[in-house]
Amino acid sequence: MKQIFLVRHCETTGQSEGDELTSLGFEQARGLAGFLADFEIHAVVSSPFVRAIQSITPFCNQNDLTLRTDDRLVERVLGLGQVKDFLELYQPTFVDLELRYGDGETSKEALQRILAVIEEVESGTVLVSHGGLLSLALMHYGTGDGFQYWEQLGNPDVFLLTLRDDEAVLRRLWK
Question: I need a surface site. Which of 48, 88, 90, 134 has the fewest CB within 10 A?
Fold first, then answer.
């Protein structure tokens, strides 16, 4: 049996790689550290984006865990840029996993990134990532529509993925 914690970062000031957490986001990160302390966690792997790192750093500091980053946990690259009708363009990417906009990646490509990380890490690992990427993993292992998962994600959000034999059980721990 393998248990992986899937964590979406706390509230942020923006969506760029270097955007930091808001004041509330830093408060949420401290709360997240306390919440995760109740679980048996041995490792933490995060997106290298600042908001993801800042979200899990208090937990790592409190538990003397080394924070490792992995580029495969960065947010999905849609290739849309700034568009008015983002949701209308975003939703179909959860239905047609091969849909590509410009030089962006497909949902299938993004999903393969996070699945590779999940496959490699050991039980008791926390993966910290972003809403778009996590919603693809939730869709893969869960029973819901990926777009609906994305719409319902909180900042932060925590899911426990339990893998045993050919069975995957996904449970939301905190929203």
Answer: 88
